[in-house]
Structure formats: C-alpha cells, structure tokens
C-alpha cells in the first residue's frame, strides 16, 4: 500500500465513481482513493467525525475531487465547511462536475474552490483530464505547509 496521502473523491453517481477510479488506475496514480458518496460522508471523513471518528483529521487528503450535486449535503456546502475551518481552509478542492451553470462556477470559486472542471463525456478525454489533474496536484503543485 502506498504511503502517499489519499485523494478524496466525493461522488454519488456509481458510474462516474467507477469511471474516475478506472482513470486513476489507468494513469497509474499511486495514491489511494477514498470515496465519499454524499456530502455528509465527505465532511465526516475530512473532520474525523461520525463513522470516521477514529481517523486523525490532521491527516488531510492530498486533494478533494468534489461533485456539486450530492445527496444530504451539496458540494457547495461541503466546500463552505472546508473553507470555514482553519484546519482545512488550505486543503486543495477541485470541483469535478457536469454542471455548466455560471452560478455554480461563480459560487464554487467564491467559496474558495482551487479549480472547476467539467467532466468530459468521452472516456479518453476524461482519462487525459484526470492524468493532468493528478500530475499537477500531486507532482507539480507545492502544497502549503499548513495543508500537509
């Protein structure tokens, strides 16, 4: 098992989850991917609450891939909670969604999203997008010490 920090994928659509995991696998990304299937599960994982109460919340994921349209707690509210807490305010959050709504894009950036990526429909384009995203956030980007 890799000692790299995990990637948190917040995705409620099983097909999109499988596609994203397949893309990470095909791109040979060594980081483990933790999947949260709704906003509440994502917040519980990040802050070490609920079913994740034994997890150390100081062990943050390398980055969060966040869908917007989620059950129980939508992605924008998850982002709002991440940015509102000093422990997670600098955690990289990449919105990965099908929404092209200008209001979603504006609000995501207003709340502190690091990037907003619309999911490509074509698998090869999606594979390339995941590879580029992983290369940037795991290799090229210098994470803030407070986020490590």
Tell me what the structure shows.
It contains five helices and five strands, in the order βαβαβαβαβα. With 148 residues, the protein is of the alpha/beta class. It has a single domain, classed as Response regulator (Rossmann fold, 3-Layer(aba) Sandwich), CATH 3.40.50. Strands 2-1-3-4-5 form a five-stranded parallel beta sheet.
Number of domains: 1
How would a crystallographer describe the biggest sheet? Answer: 5 strands, parallel
Q: Determine the strand fraction and express it as a percent band.
A: 5-15%
Question: In the CATH hierarchy, what is the class?
Answer: Alpha Beta
For CATH, the homologous superfamily is named as: Response regulator
CATH architectural type: 3-Layer(aba) Sandwich
| CATH domain topology | Rossmann fold
- Taking the alpha carbons of the first and last residues, their distance comes to 20 Å
Total helices: the number is 5
Low-pLDDT segments: none
Modified residues (4-aspartylphosphate): 67
Protein name: Response regulator
Domain Response regulatory: 6-134
Keywords: Phosphoprotein
């Amino acid at each position: 098992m890799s000692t790299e920090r995990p990637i948190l994928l917040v995705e409620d659509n099983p097909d999109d989850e499988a596609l994203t995991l397949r893309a990470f696998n095909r791109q040979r990304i060594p980081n483990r991917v933790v999947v949260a299937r709704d906003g509440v599960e994502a917040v519980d994982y990040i802050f070490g609450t609920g079913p994740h109460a034994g997890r150390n919340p100081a062990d943050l994921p390398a980055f969060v891939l966040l869908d917007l349209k989620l059950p129980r707690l939508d992605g924008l509210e998850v982002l709002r909670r991440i940015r509102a807490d000093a422990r997670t305010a600098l955690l990289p959050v990449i919105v990965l969604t099908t929404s092209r709504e200008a209001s979603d894009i504006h609000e995501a950036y207003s709340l502190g999203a690091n990037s907003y990526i619309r999911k490509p429909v074509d698998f090869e384009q999606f594979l390339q997008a995941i590879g580029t995203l992983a290369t940037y956030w795991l290799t090229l980007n210098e994470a803030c010490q407070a986020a490590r």
